[in-house]
UniProtKB/TrEMBL annotation:
The gene is pgm5_2. SUPFAM superfamilies: Phosphoglycerate mutase-like. It comes from the Bacteria. Pfam families: His_Phos_1. It comes from Ligilactobacillus pabuli. This is Phosphoglycerate mutase.
Length: 191
């Protein structure tokens, strides 16, 4: 049986606004971030999308976003967390290497995660979520890097060009057929 899963990036945070690196570290949603989450809530309402369950990373920016979007019961999962940037956490973003290839193993020597680790845990976690027979319409709130690496695992040429960065509160509509995920579309609810 096919299942619909909506994977969403959290709203803007204080660290986003200050151009600080946040992976394992956390910062609160800004007023803009809260409004972005409200825009996502309105998008779902306009399209009569009601969630029977939700999942968020254990980081507050994700669970706070989910709580603005829906009042469905939800669970926080470590497998949905953002990439750990090690010693680069809370540093200025200009210190980061440029381009996704540079992220593959760069942070490991600084106490962080590899891109492969993030890809594998996101795919495993989202597959487990999608295979849960108790939920049919699911909202999952995670992070830009974590979503990027998940998409990298499932992306097919027929989807077009994979985006490097998702806008805050971007929604990735996915269909899970019991074996594989298919990207239906990526939505920016703030537009």
């Amino acid at each position: 049986m096919k299942k619909v899963l909506y994977l969403m990036r959290h709203g803007e945070t204080r660290f986003n606004k200050l151009h600080k690196i946040q992976g394992a570290s956390d910062s609160p949603l800004t007023e803009t971030g809260i409004q972005q989450a409200k825009d996502a809530k309105n998008y779902f309402a306009r399209h009569n999308i009601v969630f029977d369950y939700g999942y968020a990373s254990t980081q507050e920016r994700a669970s706070d976003t989910l709580e603005v979007v829906t009042n469905a019961p939800y669970q926080r999962l470590k497998g949905l967390k953002e990439m750990d940037f090690g010693d680069f956490e809370a540093q200025a973003t200009y210190l980061q290497p440029k381009g996704p290839d540079a992220f593959e193993n760069f942070y490991v020597s600084f106490g962080g995660e590899s891109a492969l680790t993030v890809r594998q845990r996101m795919l495993r976690t989202l597959t487990d979520i999608a295979q849960n027979d108790h939920h049919q319409q699911i909202l999952v709130v995670s992070h830009n890097g974590a979503c990027f690496y998940f998409l990298q695992q499932i992306w097919q040429e027929s989807f077009g060009k994979q985006p490097l960065e998702l806008p805050h509160c971007a929604i990735i509509k996915l269909i899970f057929d019991g074996q594989e995920f298919q990207v239906v579309k990526i939505i920016d609810p703030t537009k």
